[in-house]
């Protein structure tokens, strides 16, 4: 028992992964969908007021008349995609959570919206076609290792037309500074991590290189599962240089993905990129 805990709760290597992907877990994805759709919870998607404001602002920097074919990467249950379709974009949404994609499809069919939903991993994108623009919303880019961030940039770059735009947001270095290390445990008779009774040991760990980890060990009668939720935080300069290394031209940065001006105190950074 002691040895097992030592093994599970050690500091993993930077961006080490486990075999457990919480977005795709049968039980957890059900809970996550509820959270995406809960207007008072911004754990999985931001709240409706923000999403509405953000989707309206995006139309000013990526106007649908000039950037009709829009790729929504990590679209979740389609909260943005639906707004984009209503604004006149022809939307393709990609997500690897079949739970979210099935929900998104049912909503777009019911409401007669022109959205193509694809269930696949955006690190291994297979979808074909040339897009006018792409978005990756709610700081998912920072959940990826440097190598995987390069893969996403490459996947998007190769699918955009020349002059096409890519908009994404990340957590700023201020979030890293505000992050504190902590350790907690809880016991639940069924809840977020499992339908069965479970113990959850959770550690917030701060790494050098502007990266944080939420390390979670879930223990049920069936066994133990570990989850690593990484987040890389960026300075404006780091983000611009990463995008430019991928071939993009950085047009502008903002304090969030609703167009708030960027300042030294911004907790997020949104960047608008263009393929030359
Ligand atoms: C924080 S949520 C944001 C959802 C949506 N963009 C929004 O703002 O409402 C991140 C989404 O990315 C998806 N995701 C994470 N990693 C992915 C990957 N490698 N391939 C495809 N989808 C992924 C998750 O399933 C989840 O729906």
Kindly describe this structure.
By secondary structure, the protein is an alpha/beta fold. The chain has two domains: 77 residues, no CATH class; 168 residues, Vaccinia Virus protein VP39 (Rossmann fold, 3-Layer(aba) Sandwich), CATH 3.40.50. 30% of the residues lie in helices and 31% in strands. Helix 3 crosses helix 4. The termini are far apart. The protein binds S-adenosylmethionine. The site of S-adenosylmethionine has 19 residues, from helix 4 and strand 2.
The CATH homologous superfamily name of the largest domain equals Vaccinia Virus protein VP39
Q: What's the main sheet like?
A: 7 strands, mixed
Average pLDDT, all residues: 96
Q: How many distinct domains?
A: 2
CATH architecture of the largest domain: 3-Layer(aba) Sandwich
Give the CA-CA distance, first to last residue.
Answer: 56 Å
Could you say which overall geometry the principal axes of the C-alpha atoms support? globular
What's this entry about, in short?
By secondary structure, the chain is an alpha/beta fold. It has 8 helices and 11 strands. The strands form 2 sheets. The protein has a 7-stranded mixed sheet with strand order 3-2-1-4-5-11-10, sandwiched between helices. A 4-stranded antiparallel sheet has the order 6-7-8-9, with no helix packed on it.
